[in-house]
TrEMBL record:
PANTHER family hit by this protein: MITOGEN-ACTIVATED PROTEIN KINASE KINASE KINASE 20-RELATED, SERINE_THREONINE-PROTEIN KINASE NEKL-3
SMART domains cross-referenced by the UniProt entry: S_TKc (SM00220)
Domain of life: Bacteria
UniProt keyword S-adenosyl-L-methionine present: no
Name of the protein: non-specific serine/threonine protein kinase
UniProt biased composition (Pro residues): 255-265
Compositionally biased tracts (Basic residues): 270-281
Keyword annotations of the record: ATP-binding, Kinase, Membrane, Nucleotide-binding, Serine/threonine-protein kinase, Transferase, Transmembrane, Transmembrane helix
Enzymatic class: transferase
Length: 319
């Protein structure tokens, strides 16, 4: 399949999203700052790259997630037009925890505890919705641009999220997740379980306090968060701390000093000046409220058929 043509700024996708500037890239494609022309608000738009079956499966999986929580950023709409397929979500301009660690190294105990608490609160909403994230890592922990104020973390990227204990999302002997952050049983292809996300929280927390990625991490050092880390990083899932709520209770009992966080700047910079609008052609859109607009549906019937077919056959769940 040929590569999808790269979008350009000022392109309007599906008559809904006007691309402003590219702000990132990843395994699924590129990420753009865009304006929702219906609401006038800026959003983050994930633009899919090559439309292979695996990528479309990730798209279907991610667009079905409708978790609303202050510490979660999930898609609130999607659109397809000709060879462009996009996911829309809130714009989070402060970069990621990976950026913070790369620039500042290990964080003080209070800041590490605050970020872990916010991550656990976000995961509580995800698990409460019956999902396992399966890819908790610093690059997927986005930060609001709070300047010199306390950091505000938001869990993102639900491309490999799956219903709890759903064997349709298990690949044996392969594994779904990121090496180093996956729980041992997850790496062996076990069905999705919330305790796998909790193991990843332990790896992330150890990275926050040591500045070291999992490949270089050793024993848990003497630290105010040590009692929590030891419970999260248990190899046997039956002995690991069982729920997000239990992890939060333990964390909040620990004698942690007040946070002294590094600043979190706006990493996106000023909004670019709008350019002349490129007209929309043939499109389909959908938003979190379930509304669908059809514009010239015949030209995209094949693409949307694949998407909806994947949703029906592979997932069997949506918002």
């Amino acid at each position: 399949m040929p590569a999808t043509a790269a979008p350009r700024s000022a392109t309007v996708v599906a008559g809904r999203y006007r691309l402003l500037d590219q702000v990132g890239s990843g395994g699924m494609g590129s990420v753009w700052r865009a304006t929702d022309v219906r609401t006038g608000r800026d959003v983050a738009l994930k633009v899919l790259g090559r439309h292979g079956s695996a990528l479309l499966a990730r798209f279907v999986r991610e667009q079905a997630v409708r978790v609303r929580h202050p510490h979660v950023v999930a898609p609130h709409g999607w659109a397809a037009e000709d060879d462009l397929v996009v996911l829309a979500m809130e714009l989070v301009p402060g970069g990621s925890v990976a950026d913070l660690l790369r620039e500042h190294g290990p964080l003080d105990a209070g800041t590490a505890a605050l970020l872990v608490e916010q991550l656990l609160m976000g995961l509580a909403a995800v698990h409460g919705a019956g999902l396992v994230h399966r890819d908790v890592k610093p690059a997927n922990l986005l930060l609001e641009a709070t300047g010199d104020g306390p950091p505000h973390l938001r869990l993102g990227d639900f491309g490999v999220a799956a219903p709890i204990a759903d064997r349709r999302f298990t690949t044996v002997p392969g594994a779904i997740g990121t090496d180093g952050y996956m729980a041992p049983e997850q790496a062996r292809g076990a069905p999705p379980e919330p305790t796998q996300d909790l193991y990843a929280v332990g790896r992330v927390a150890l990275e926050l306090v040591t500045g070291l990625p999992p490949s270089r991490q050793g024993e848990v050092p003497s630290h105010p968060l040590r009692p929590l880390l030891e419970r999260l990083l248990v190899t046997d899932p039956e002995q690991r701390i069982a729920t997000v709520e239990a992890a939060l209770r333990l964390l909040r009992r620990l004698p942690v000093p007040p946070p002294d966080p590094p600043p979190v700047p706006d990493r996106l910079g000023p909004r670019p000046r709008p350019r002349r609008r490129r007209t929309s052609r043939t499109a389909r859109t959908a938003d979190g409220a379930g509304g669908v607009d059809w514009l010239g549906w015949l030209a995209v019937a094949a693409l949307t058929g694949v998407v909806l077919g994947c949703l029906h056959l592979l997932l069997g769940w949506s918002a």
